[in-house]
Fold this sequence. Notes:
Layout: H1 3-12, H2 15-37, H3 45-56, H4 69-105, E1 117-120, H5 124-136, E2 142-146, E3 160-163, H6 169-174, E4 182-185, H7 193-210, E5 216-220, H8 226-232, E6 236-239, H9 240-252, H10 260-270, E7 271-277, H11 287-296, E8 300-306, E9 309-312, E10 325-331
Parallel strand pairs: 1-2, 1-4, 2-3, 4-5, 5-6
Antiparallel strand pairs: 7-10, 8-9, 8-10
Helix pairs in contact: 2-3, 2-4, 3-4
Amino acid sequence: MSIKLFKQAYYNVPVILRLLLFIILLMVIAGTAIHYIEPDEFPTIFEGIWWAFVTAATVGYGDYVPHSLPGRALALLLILTGGGLIAFYISRFSAVAITHEHNLEKGRVAFKGGGHLVFVGWNERTRQLIDITLDKDPDTQVVLIDRTLNSLAYQHYPVHFIHGDATEDYTLIQANIKHAKCVIITADTTEKERQADNFTILTTVAVRGNNEEIPIIAEILSGIQVENAIRAGATTTLKTNDFMSALLYHEMSREKAAMPFEDTLNLLKSQQFRHIKIDPEIVGKTFREASHAFLMDDRLLVGVLRDKEWQLNPGHDYLLKENDILICLLAR
């Protein structure tokens, strides 16, 4: 190996490891030297190395003591140099740990894990969604990408924060997007609807360019941008304005005995919607008959998707047809 290659490899090693290797090398040299200076007191090289570490660390067990002038001179030199090096190594190690913690809080540390969820955009919806996710599965790894948040301490919120623009490849690489499980892009409600949707669509394009298979859930504020989001690569688009408008109308026109908002919220938290292709055995049966069969299997049949039209809570004599998609609820 040439000197140039050796220097290149040496400087590629982190400073903390280079310092540790230098200290070990110095202790080996000092331990070997004391073994040859006083072989009677230090019969093996290992005992000399042990003495070198104990002396440099200023522990001073006293189990091995040099008696000759050269041996004591070596001990003085080791105390002055080795002790300072070990103290510097400890302080350097502490500084590296503190710097890493600071960079982690500032979103400058790349995520190295896999099978994680990536959330784009920090807002109240994201915070609640992360809370629900971690409450259901505390082992879930979550990466948050945001360009407006300056810092996010892990001890305050158990997510890996990446500060940056999610439309840029560098930021997505920092989030290890190639090995992520799913990406959820929330709309920035502080921007105008069109600008927020444009950012969501650009982010979708960037994510899809880095991972062709990953599911992408995109929140769209304007209905006319839904098709653009799908063309960009979104697996699912959520039209939150439509949802909230329908929910507000339902709340506004509700009966006194009903609580539509709370009912819907608890339904979505505790139940999971599932679309199931109809079994040939129940084709031609009524909705009531199919509902009974589903209840026996701890599933609640709530409607039918036929020709891209939702038939929710149809009549009990509603006949099921081939190619119907059954909509049911399962407990999470």
